[in-house]
Amino acid sequence: MVADLSLGLAAPPRPARRGWLRDLERPGEVFGHLTPNWFASVMGTGIVAAAASSLPVHIPGLRSFALAVWALAAGLLVVLVAATAMHWLRYPATARSHIAHPVAGHFYGAPPMAVLTVGAGALLVGRDVLGLRLAVDLDWALWFVGTVAGLGSTAVVPYLMFVRHRIPRTAPFGGWLMPVVPPMVSAATGALLVPHAPAGARLALLGSCYAMFGLSLLASAVVIPLIWRRGSSGDVCAPAMVPTLWIVLGPLGQSIAAVNLLGAAAVGVVSTQAAHGLHVFGIAYGLAVLTVALVWASRAVRITARTARSGLPFSLTWWSFTFPVGTVVVGMSALAVQTGAAAFQAGAVVGYAALVTAWLVVSVRTLRAAASGWIFRPPAPRAAAS
Asked: What is the C-alpha to C-alpha distance for residues 46 and 48, in angstroms, rounded to an integer?
C-alpha cells in the first residue's frame, strides 16, 4: 500500500525544543498540517461526560465531573472548528490532499461525531448550567449539523477511497470505520431528542434514526470482517496504527446504545405492541453484539499489550482508546436500564473506570506532544510501504 501513515496519525515523536513556535517561518504555520483526526480528542473527551451521565449507578461527584468534562469538550470543539477553518483558508491544497489521502481521508468521519457527541452532552449534563430549553436547542442544532456532515462522510469518503486508490488486501484498518459510524451516532443521540420533538414529528424522527442505524450497521458489517480477516491472517498493522484496532468497538458499542435508546424512546410514539417488540429486539441485539465486542476487545488488548512491549509510539491514533470504549460503556448502561441486570451495571462501572484512565493518559500525552511542538510539524518523509 503506497501511503504515508503519518499526517498526524503516526508521526514519530520528535525531540522537545523550547520556543518551537519561533522556529516556524510564520506563526500561522501551526495550522499548516492540521488533520481531521484531531477531532477524535473531542469525541474521546465528550464520551467521558456522556458515559458518566448514562451510568445506572449513583457515584457522588460524578455529575459535576461530567459537566466539567463536557465543557472541556465543547471548548475543544470550538477551538478545532476555528483552527480547521484557518487551515482551509491558509492551506487549501494541503487540506484537499488530506481528503484524498488513503489513510487520513477516513478520519473525516471524526468531525461530525465530535459535533454529535458535544450536542448530546449538552442535553445530558450541560442543561445543569444552560437550562433545559437552551440545552435542547443547542442539541438540535448540533444534531442536524453532525447528521448532515456524517451522512456526507458515509457517502463521499468510501467513494473517493475506492475510486481514487487501488485497495490491496493489506489495506483495511480500523480507520475504515470512521466515515461510516457517524449515522449510528446520530441514531443514538437522536433517540435522546425524540421526547423533545413536536408530537407530530416524533415518529418521523424515530424512523429516521432507525434508518441511520440500519445504514451504519450494514456499512460496518462490510468493513469489520475485512479488518478481522486481516488480523486473523497474522498481518497486523504498523505499531503506531495498532490503536485503530479499538475503533471496531465504536460501531458495536454505539449500535447497542442506539437500538436500546430508540426502543425506550418508542414508548408512546408507536403502538404498545410495536414498542414492546422494539424493546425485546434491543435487548436481544445488545446481548449478541456485546459478546462480539468483548471478544474483539480481548483480541485488541492482547495485540496492544504485545506491541507496547516492543514499542507503541504515541500519535493521535491513541484517541482510539477512548471513544470506542466509551460507546461500549454507554451500550452496557443502556442494557442495564432495559434489563435491570446487575452484571451490566457492574460491567458499565468497570468499563467507565477503564475509559477515564485511558482518557487521562491520552490527554496528558497529547498535551506533552503539543507543548513540544512536534505534533504540529509536517510529518517526516517515509518510504512507501507495500
From this structure: 5
